[in-house]
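FIELD: query
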Amino acid sequence: MQKSKKILIAVIAAVVVLAAAVILYFTVFRNSGPDSSKGTVYVESVGSLTGTGNNLGVLNRYTGVVDPQETLEIQKNSDKTVKEIFVEEGDEVSAGTPLFSYDTDAISLELSQAQLDLESLNNDISALYTQISQMEKEKQQAPQDDQLSYTTQIQSLQNDVRRAEYNKKSKQAEIEQIRASLDNATVVSEIAGAVQSINSEGTDEFGNSAPFMTIIATGNYRIKGKANEQNLRSLYEGQPVIIHSRIDKDTTWNGTVSVIETEPAQNDSNVYYYSSDSEQSSNYNFYVELEDASADLILGQHVYIEPDAGQSEAKEGLWLMEGYFVLEDNAAYAWVMDSKNRLEKREVTLGDYDSELCEYEVLSGLTADDYIAWPMPSFENGLSCTTDMSQATYTEDNTSDGAITDDGSMIDDGSMTDDGSMTDDGAMTDDGAMTDDGAMIDDGAMIDDGINVDGGADDTVSN
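FIELD: result
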């Protein structure tokens, strides 16, 4: 009897220790790190959201270069020879200033030959009409049997006349073009500006076709930027932008996107678009009109361009969209990532409210170095956090509290079932588990009154 009691006490002690270990695991050790079983929450930098701290924010930034307002590219006629160039690179020119002239000797000879050809055509046409007139007279005196032959000859001559008349018109047009070439033998500038380049070879350093002469307009400048194909759609004509000096970070100019080109840009050693994406993609030019026409800029100066989202007029202090806060019980809270990358509901103190931007000023509880999440009703303390959006897995569709189900996963109240898992009140069932009142059943376990049945040394043992 005493031996059975000792065995019974030992079994009870072992079960209690096992149950305590299970409870300790799920209440202490399992919760010692971030809870990722329910998904990982994406958090954003407060500095990024507010444009404060060392974070540049979420705005795209492009590189650009100061460009002339207008560029005149003059192509040389490949059928002509340049006789004389009247300007040099760097020269200032006005509208109408002679730039270069073509060799007119060859053009004059070409005109003389064309005029001779036209005179010959006129003679041919005159001779054909004379033949037709003579054939018609002969036809009237010819016998009836020869009438068809005369008619055929006359029609053939008339066709020759039509061909000659067509050639005459073509030759007259050619003469007009040659005369125009003579009149325009001297090419003049259409704009006031400076001679940027003179390219006698007709190609650039890469072997691509290049204009013979380039004139850049003097006066107001514009900014030429490049956008990658992946962010081109974030720009639109009429969009306000801020131009930043690369030399002095405190110097900026305002402007508006005026033109966005849809053809991929050619290789340009002056302008680059920097992207973290290692894959190749096309670049596209866009142009910015400066708000201040007298801006202190230098032709060829490199700058940064970013969309104007009001960042230059930022209010003092820390301002966040109202949607990031949970307002309840006369207090405000934010879901913040703690030092262990776990989500915590932190109370914050709010100040003024901007009704136009729907923003609150944060007086305390958050800094630019914190990371916060957009609130969801199912958030709870301890959830795993990530600053990488691609690693975020938490959604409202996840189970309500991530409890374990029949196959080892958690159910709503965190208990375990069927396979040795915990039930609603922490008891164990079926395979040596504890029942609601801590008794053991079926395999020598204790029943409700603590009596040993079926598998004990004695049929009944009373306490």
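FIELD: remark
Confidence is low (pLDDT under 50) at residues 27-31, 54-58, 268-278, 399-463.
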